[in-house]
């Protein structure tokens, strides 16, 4: 399996990206990694950080995108590491593409270069987040600010298939993010989406409120990209704030520090449960081939986990299952 990696995507590129690739290769001998980016800079970073890249192929290009670039830059700057990697995927020169770079550019490139799964209206950003207990997928997390009810129906199918095939969740429960749990709640978008989801071959459990999302109410939270991005950013910010407050409390006095030592193992476990590194990032579901958005602040360990998830993504025929399910829904209409 050939996995293409944007060596210059993210805040810590290229050093942490190539370190993560090296870690992945140490654990998995059935993958090949192709790095895209300026070859001289990749080799210099590998030398400075004592990373062995002898088993990695480098696809040399002269440019790379930054987080400040507009989304369409991926189309205009064809020799950037992201554009080159996406084009290689589209041309069949690899089985999947990963980037920790500009989210807007990656979604645009996945849509316009790699193209969409047949029958899918729009690809969606699909982050996996921790809940109590376990994890859930938020779809759409920000790719599509304005949505039609049929798009939310497709998001439900894509999220359900991915969680079952890649994350091993049996019959994922699908919930529609809304301002109340009652069937009649919400605006016209939510009303029609609710009706469609009741007729969709997923395990739909109804509306879910914001207060229910962090708990074990459902496994896939479906919403439009505007609402989803607000949920995502608030969720991440609240988690960071709470963990910061806990840390400050235990540092407040000698007595508190002693009590922290007594439950250090549990605190470490809690930190691990809310650590987004273990999920690596988010698939761009709806793209015709596997495209994975790695966390922008990715460290080596994040990349290692992201590559492992992407490998499962390729091996479990997620895209084929999504296409066949969407086709069956359209045939019923």
Secondary structure layout plus pairing:
Layout: E1 2-6, H1 15-27, E2 32-37, H2 39-48, E3 57-60, H3 73-76, H4 81-90, E4 96-99, H5 103-114, E5 124-125, E6 128-130, E7 135-139, H6 149-165, E8 173-177, H7 188-198, E9 203-208, E10 220-222, H8 225-250, H9 254-262, H10 264-273, E11 281-285, E12 291-294, H11 300-315, H12 318-332
Parallel strand pairs: 1-2, 1-4, 2-3, 4-12, 7-10, 8-9, 8-10
Antiparallel strand pairs: 5-11, 6-7, 11-12
What does this structure look like?
- The chain has 333 residues and is an alpha/beta fold.
- Helices cover 46% and strands 16% of the residues.
- It has helices at residues 15-27, 39-48, 73-76, 81-90, 103-114, 149-165, 188-198, 225-250, 254-262, 264-273, 300-315, 318-332; strands at residues 2-6, 32-37, 57-60, 96-99, 124-125, 128-130, 135-139, 173-177, 203-208, 220-222, 281-285, 291-294.
- A seven-stranded mixed sheet has the order 3-2-1-4-12-11-5, with helices on both faces. Strands 6-7-10-8-9 form a five-stranded mixed sheet.
- Helix 1 (15-27) links the parallel strand 1 (2-6) and strand 2.
- The two termini are 38 Å apart.
Features:
333 residues; alpha/beta; seven-stranded mixed beta sheet; five-stranded mixed beta sheet; 12 helices; globular
How much helicity do the residues have? 40-55%
Reading side by side through the largest sheet, how are the strands ordered?
3-2-1-4-12-11-5
Helical region count? Answer: 12
Q: What would you call the structural class? A: alpha/beta
| Counted beta strands | 12
Largest sheet: 7 strands, mixed
Catalogue the unreliable spans.
Answer: none
Globally, the shape reads globular
**Rg, nearest Å:** 20 Å
For the terminal residues, how far apart are their CA atoms? 38 Å
